[in-house]
């Protein structure tokens, strides 16, 4: 077994890593930190102020600063961009200087370019998990002269293929969830949609498809832009479509586990699709648009796919998915969405970066 490691996890400086989660990335980092700690490693997390601090890991402080009146009046750059850049610049300078010998591994889960651009300044090896496509800022950081002093893994084969033209072949470690935390539910007579209420998640298509399939829809998740909810969601709420709020995991588990089918309707190429894995763990079959990494999670025993943006096809997928045996749906999660397997694979990556013997892994 790999020796106990001192691991720094770099997460979002904008969104706290705590329940109820702002999105899938925050949920992933939270659960990953718990799993690494349970495996005997010492975890220190860099994340937005207000992140959970009642759990057994340390916190790297997020440095803030007071903008001058003149700079605050500059309309060219949003203030949150400036604060985020300052936060990552500060933590990378700390890792290069005062914290230089404090960690064995720095594991980067941020979506900011500075950890990649400054990776060569720190003593510990860096591993970066690619949770997104090659966004412009990340793309340009990888293309810096001399390359980037970080190894990479991608959360799905689809995401790895997107990054291959940028930095060559990328190993894949699919995201995993704690199957003990997501209990199989009894099912019910409604459909469920969970996630961030933002345009790229395609909630209006889920509402339309549920209506055409003749099944009530219950919605849960954090609101994005207020005008999006006001214009595209609230007018559609009625006796058959309800918004349950921004729920903690336990309540999401109950809601998803009590549904006949879960809908996943991205309007972008979803890199992985954590809500898909969560639904399967609840024993709830999934009807989804075939985008991004989602087809890698679902098979014929656990869900039905529809062509992207095809609401009529999605309505048909809802009806067919709801007929699938729930025990086989849960079995798919156990076989392909295990956090334990994911963590062992990451520990093997750490061993390779440290030139140590990896754990043996049986798939």
From TrEMBL:
Superkingdom of the source species: Bacteria
Question: What does the UniProt keyword field contain?
Answer: Glycosyltransferase, Transferase
Q: Which residues form the Glycosyltransferase subfamily 4-like N-terminal domain?
A: 23-180
Q: Name one GO molecular function term.
A: glycosyltransferase activity
- Keyword Lyase in the entry? The reply is no
InterPro entries on file: Glyco_trans_4-like_N, Glycosyltransferase_grp1
- Enzyme Commission number(s) from the entry: 2.4.-.-
Q: Does the keyword Transport apply?
A: no
Please tell me which top-level EC class this enzyme sits in: transferase
Q: Give the matching PANTHER family.
A: SULFOQUINOVOSYL TRANSFERASE SQD2
The protein in question is named Glycosyltransferase
Taxonomic source organism: Mycobacterium hippophais
């Amino acid at each position: 077994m790999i020796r106990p490691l001192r691991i720094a996890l770099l997460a979002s400086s904008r969104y706290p890593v705590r329940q109820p989660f702002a999105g899938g990335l925050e949920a992933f980092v939270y659960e990953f930190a718990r799993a690494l700690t349970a495996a005997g490693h010492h975890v220190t997390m860099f994340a937005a102020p207000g992140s959970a601090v009642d759990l057994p890991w340390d916190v790297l402080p997020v440095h803030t600063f007071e903008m001058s009146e003149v700079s605050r009046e500059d309309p060219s750059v949003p203030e949150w961009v400036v604060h985020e850049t300052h936060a990552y610049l500060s933590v990378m300078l700390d890792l290069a200087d005062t914290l230089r010998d404090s960690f064995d591994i720095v594991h980067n889960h941020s979506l900011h370019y500075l950890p990649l651009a400054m990776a060569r300044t720190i003593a510990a090896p860096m591993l970066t998990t690619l949770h997104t496509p090659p966004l412009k800022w990340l793309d340009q950081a990888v293309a810096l002269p001399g390359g980037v002093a970080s190894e990479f893994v991608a959360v799905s084969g689809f995401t790895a293929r997107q990054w291959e033209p940028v930095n060559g072949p990328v190993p894949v470690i699919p995201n995993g969830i704690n199957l003990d935390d997501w209990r199989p539910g009894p099912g019910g007579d409604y459909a469920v949609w969970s996630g961030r209420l933002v345009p790229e998640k395609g909630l209006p298509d889920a509402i339309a498809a549920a209506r055409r399939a003749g099944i009530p829809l219950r919605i849960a998740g954090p609101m994005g832009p207020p005008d999006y909810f006001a214009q595209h969601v609230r007018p559609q709420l009625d006796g058959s479509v309800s918004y349950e709020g921004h729920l903690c995991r336990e309540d999401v588990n109950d809601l998803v586990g009590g549904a006949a089918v879960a809908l996943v309707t991205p309007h972008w190429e979803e890199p992985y699709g954590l809500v898909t894995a969560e639904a399967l763990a609840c024993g709830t079959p999934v009807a989804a648009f075939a985008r991004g990494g989602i087809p890698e999670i679902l098979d014929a025993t656990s869900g039905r796919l529809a062509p992207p943006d095809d609401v009529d096809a999605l309505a048909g997928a809802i009806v067919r998915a709801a007929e699938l045996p729930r025990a086989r749906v849960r079995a798919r999660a156990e076989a392909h969405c295990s956090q334990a397997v994911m963590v062992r694979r990451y520990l093997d990556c750490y061993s390779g970066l440290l030139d140590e013997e990896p754990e043996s892994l049986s798939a």
